[in-house]
Design goal:
six-stranded mixed β-sheet, alpha/beta, 6 strands, 151 residues, Rossmann fold
Length: 151
C-alpha cells in the first residue's frame, strides 16, 4: 500500500522559497515505513496547475492521499481536493486546521476523512484496515464522512 502526502507550503512574497521541513509528515512517514508501507511526498512550494498536479499524482499511484493543512494553506487544500474528486483514491486531511475546524474540513469536496490530533496511530490503523478490507468507522480521532465522528 502506498500513501502520498500532499503538503502545500507556499510563500508568494518569497521567490526563493524552498519550504519548511515539516516534522509531522516526517513522523507519519517514518511510522508507516516501519510497518512496511510505501510513502511519498508532494511538497508544493510554488503555485501549481491542475494538469501538473494531476500528472505528478498519477505518477505516484497512491492507494491513499493524505493532506496536511495549516489554516493559511487550507484554501489550497480545498482546491487540490476538488481536483481529486472522482479519482477513486480515498483522501484524508490532518494537521492543525482539521484539528481546530473539523466540520469545515470534512464538508470539503474531495476530502473523505479527517484526523484530529496526533495521527501516527490512527493513520497506521487506517492503512492496516484498508489493506485488509476491514471497517474503518471505529478508529479513534478519525472522522469519516459516512460515519459519525469518534474522539
Amino acid at each position: 500500500m502506498k500513501i502520498t502526502f500532499i503538503y502545500p507550503d507556499i510563500l508568494l512574497h518569497r521567490p526563493d522559497w524552498t519550504g519548511y521541513f515539516y516534522v509531522g509528515i516526517g513522523s507519519l512517514s517514518a511510522v508507516l515505513k516501519k510497518q512496511g508501507y510505501e510513502t511519498s511526498l508532494l511538497h508544493i512550494t510554488k503555485p501549481v496547475s491542475k494538469s501538473k498536479f494531476m500528472k505528478r499524482l498519477e505518477k505516484e499511484t497512491p492507494d491513499l492521499i493524505g493532506f496536511s493543512s495549516t489554516s493559511p494553506m487550507f484554501p489550497l487544500i480545498r482546491q487540490y481536493a476538488s481536483w481529486l474528486e472522482g479519482l477513486g483514491v480515498p483522501t484524508i486531511c490532518g494537521g492543525i486546521h482539521p484539528t481546530i475546524a473539523p466540520d469545515e474540513v470534512l464538508q470539503t469536496r474531495g476530502i473523505d476523512m479527517i484526523c484530529r490530533g496526533e495521527g501516527e496511530a490512527p493513520l497506521s490503523e487506517l492503512c492496516r484496515k484498508m489493506e485488509n478490507n476491514e471497517d474503518t468507522s471505529d478508529i479513534l480521532n478519525l472522522w469519516i464522512k459516512r460515519h459519525p465522528p469518534r474522539c
